[in-house]
């Protein structure tokens, strides 16, 4: 029996050789070759059992010793067979030995290269090299080829090409090995444009089969997402000169960066081989404690945390590397004629460039502490990744936010958290690069922390993010959507520290709320949400709801606060949905809903919305008559207050709000009232870019709008349409129209104290010119807005309007107003097919 000179990836003896050509005579060596291979097997056994002098080698030392052992045996055996420089033969290692990552039970992946030698000589050399290894029961993956044959295989077989990129010369003619190694790499670089799509498809198919290491009970360390194959993918892209081999992550980030993550995965897989005694890639639960102890990591939970950290680091690096490589590829066909991507402004100091969120040229992270949250919010809103260079600049230069945070920084965080699933990738990018921990230093205790019960499918930190994602779809059900998403993000922040995580978390939430600049009353509510986030589900599912003491205990625990009760109800649902399949169902939902209903009956009525008092100076200006527009700096460099005092006539509120929106001023809050026949409207605004326009210009535009010379609604529609069309054509599936919403709109009618008036509370997601559109809708319905309180909390608006029906407060009129309002607020985003059922 002979090995096949043209074979690929075969094990054991193969069919007779057939090769053409001849070369210099080569000694086949002695026929008795079993002793040397037996010595190799014994040496392997000694290394695995005790190492030198019965000292157990740690994982890195064991890998190095195995590489040295096999290199020595192959070089010695090659010399015995005459495989030396200038002989026309070379032994090349691929796989683990080629990468110098030999594991205890790894196969030997070898290629015997020859310079078109005589087939009989090739067959004799191959037999005398392979048979001793087979006789010693060493697993062998082998092939025998000329350099042109090997290059042809690499050109036609993507998997073989990836393996040959890791080739390393072992013995024989180094020039022959260099021809193969250099040729494969040149071939890979020149052909990557045509093979990139196939490479990514192959990778995604592997991820689909093997799942994510970070969130799998028994992960596949080699082929799972975030595993060792992904590190090899990055190396392949680096060889193609499309990306840095270690993109975006250095040793200072959480977990120590990509190199450290690679070492940890290798160490765990090394011990897995040693414990299992076979080439196993899937880490079984029953082996985890032993492997954790061998690596001096701890128990299986400690090992799971280390693995999760490493896998998420690798996964993020691959995401960056693949995206960078895709952008670096030469364009095909007509796309080569496309213009160089332009920078599209997204927010102050933030632009879109080449399909990524980047910093504007004049952005200065050192002097703009709110830039981190602004970049993340822009990425979530526009469904774009943050460029690795931008994250690097922010990590190197952005200072920590001082206490209290600027209001705009908090609002950007709320926008991020309220963006649904689009918030996950930006948060993960911030976390892997150390920026998320800069915003929330308390996050370190829960980062990559594995759950303690099987019902949880996510690590604790990812569960917190998923809960915020679920809460984003419930924001219109509560009066304080900002506190809902913050409470969702922090409800389990006390885990990983010992003690009752609800009690510990409440203390941490108080500290975090103060640092973020929340009002003391809001800090108290946020802390209470974290402290009592399990109150409703535990009470509803474990106690008798017909017992009055059950309801009284809940009301007492929350101090009879109806807002807190509403928030805890939504948080209970978001928490359950983010835990795992089957945790939230009709039975649990009905029990909690009934408990909340009974608590509301016990508690006193809620306070009605009411208008803000008018400042005496503004009242005096209103008495003077005329149209006045004033603009003053707000509480931080990116916030301003615009005051409009003008004759109280129909359409004024719509025109004033429309002028602000048209000039890039986002309305964060507003107070609308009247005095002495003049409307007194105050708007807290933040410019989208740069500095706000002068007050004189705003007044001039308002006068134009009042006279009919400026069609604000048409201008706003055109601006919104232009923003949609600015989405890049190469990613239409990610282009989410700006009028779509994460949460459905919610309308609440409240009877006002005055006869013929009613208060309409609207909870909906924001859009460009929302207040202008709402005021216009009221006007078209013939409804007079007597006063209004407007608040934009992240992505959600909570607006209260006191409507005067002129004595005709009927059901028909209310329904007509509802239809007009629902026609202009963002509609819920349609669910994707995979989200159904």
TrEMBL record:
Residues 1-345 are annotated as: Uridylyltransferase. One of its GO terms (molecular function) is [protein-PII] uridylyltransferase activity. The lineage of its organism: Bacteria, Bacillati, Actinomycetota, Actinomycetes, Mycobacteriales. Its cofactor is Mg(2+). It comes from Rhodococcus indonesiensis. The keyword Nucleotidyltransferase applies. Keywords: Hydrolase, Magnesium, Multifunctional enzyme, Nucleotidyltransferase, Repeat, Transferase. Has four distinct domains: an N-terminal nucleotidyltransferase (NT) domain responsible for UTase activity, a central HD domain that encodes UR activity, and two C-terminal ACT domains that seem to have a role in glutamine sensing. This is Bifunctional uridylyltransferase/uridylyl-removing enzyme. Transmembrane segments: none annotated. The keyword Magnesium applies.
